[in-house]
Design brief:
The structure is a single chain. 69% of the residues lie in helices and 3% in strands. It is mostly helical.
Length: 149
């Protein structure tokens, strides 16, 4: 069943992992009794699902033209999620800083941003690993196998 790489399986796996991670974040927000609006909570779930989709797509491109070698999909997934979390922290840092200071009240805003980027890198590495495990990697994942029939 999993013998041929599939972009659909990569996408479903990484997005389900993103949904599970987003729901875990919401559970932690409720468990720690943080004052976070519903819009931010809903946006957090959608952000995690979107990161999963990006991990699924970036795993198809595993050749780096400048290095002239292939990159593992977990590396590119970790890089893209860390980069996107950095951008999210730079744009919406107030809401994220309030969440982070509710969890770690003694840390400053810069350390919370670095931690947020590190969480994104970790998410990308794990999501990329499971997406590769279930859906394969490389350009063959985007190939249409219906023409072979």
């Amino acid at each position: 069943m999993f013998s041929k790489p599939s972009l659909l399986r990569r996408g479903i796996t990484a997005k389900l992992f993103g949904l599970a991670f987003g729901l875990l974040c919401l559970y932690l927000i409720a468990w720690l009794n943080l004052n976070v609006t519903f819009v931010v909570q809903f946006g957090l779930i959608l952000w995690c699902i979107t990161l999963g989709g990006l991990v699924a797509l970036i795993g198809v491109i595993n050749y780096h033209p400048l290095l002239k070698s292939s990159m593992p999909s977990w590396f590119s997934g970790g890089f893209i999620c860390g980069w996107m979390n950095l951008l999210l922290w730079l744009i919406g840092g107030d809401s994220l800083t309030s969440i982070g200071q509710g969890i770690f009240p003694t840390l400053g805003s810069l350390f919370l941003g670095i931690g947020f980027v590190a969480i994104g890198v970790g998410f990308g590495i794990v999501a990329g690993f499971f997406a590769k495990l279930i859906g394969g990697e490389g350009p063959d994942a985007a190939r249409d196998y219906t023409a072979d029939r």
